[in-house]
Known about the structure:
It holds the Pfam family Xan_ur_permease. 69% of the residues lie in helices and 3% in strands.
Amino acid sequence: MQKYEGYKFGFKESLVGVQFLFVAFGALVLVPLLTGLDANVALFTAGAGTLLFQLITRKNVPPIFLASSFAFIAPISFGVKEWGIAATMGGLVFAGLFYVVLSFIVRVKGENFLHKMLPPVIVGPVIMTIGLILSPAAVNMAMGKNVTAYTQNEAMLVAGVSLVATILVMMLGRGMFRLIPILCGILVGYITSYFFGMIDFAPIMDAPWFKTPAFKTPVFELDPILYMVPIAIAPAIEHIGDMLAISNVTKENFLKNPGLKNTLLGDGIATSFAACFGGPPNTTYSEVTGAVSITKAYNPAIMTWTAITAIVLAFVGKLGAVLSTIPAPVIGGIMLLLFGIIASVGMETLVKHHVDLANPRNMIIVALIFVFAIGGMVLDFGVVSFSGIGLGAIVGIVLNLLLPRAKHYEGY
């Protein structure tokens, strides 16, 4: 399969599709493990969301897989604590609908509208705040805080082993191994934690082989809805970047056909669908795009099989039980790296687009996004309040619209 030739369904594609789920698996299950959602539900909604995406882009389906979005880890964790899972899912339904609205705006006004409303000077800092806000949670997990089953030194040792294993695979891995550093880090950390007696295998023994995932029905409340919608800005921009990446890999312009208007629509509906069942928001997975690049497996039918495999595994009760036994320091060690990488991606956005921070206008926008997003400030208007990443994004958009551009500065 040396070039993109459209959708062709066959047995060979099924074998490759199963392998691609292996590539996505580590990141896919990390989001529910960190936020208190059900990992089996996340598997189901990733698979079903990918199939919905393919249905919407059926005229020219990109070979991509949709699964749990890291951008929503902090908002989901806060939402579950503040309003409960059901109300948080209600907010995420509307976050997906925000994508849908963007897709219709693109349909009417064209793609340049998004770039004008969300330039790199906004997108970069917003992505950076996602990683920076999450970093204390990673440190707490790596240190085993609030856990009495093992010592802090044991927790940090296990976290360190998980972190080092992930880094080594990321830097030295070859072929498909280079695409699964998270999964390798989890496996090495899990084995290490076993020797420290951190794992209780009772849940695995007691779990049935077949079990319906713990689906949740959303409840719609104004506060979580208004909290979640602005946060969708960052993954929406990430979606555009991933569409560019898969277009470059396959030499097929998916921004033109099926077009950003349809891929954003598919991503948004997949996210809203996931939230309707209690799953995390979906996003396009760069790991799988990397696997497509390495294997030259451009047939989108492969992702159909990846999605079907995810749905089947969602009903394996013992898989969910195994995931529930992973000690927090294992996940925390890997998160130390991944949350830092998220912040670095935001920094790369500023650098790659040559955002001039000597320009007072740009400096003001970046500075205030950081302060409003990370500083813990809350703007309460009675009926609604804004805080965190969402508040930072809104401040950035408003400043970008209101601040005058200096005549001697062009572009960004």
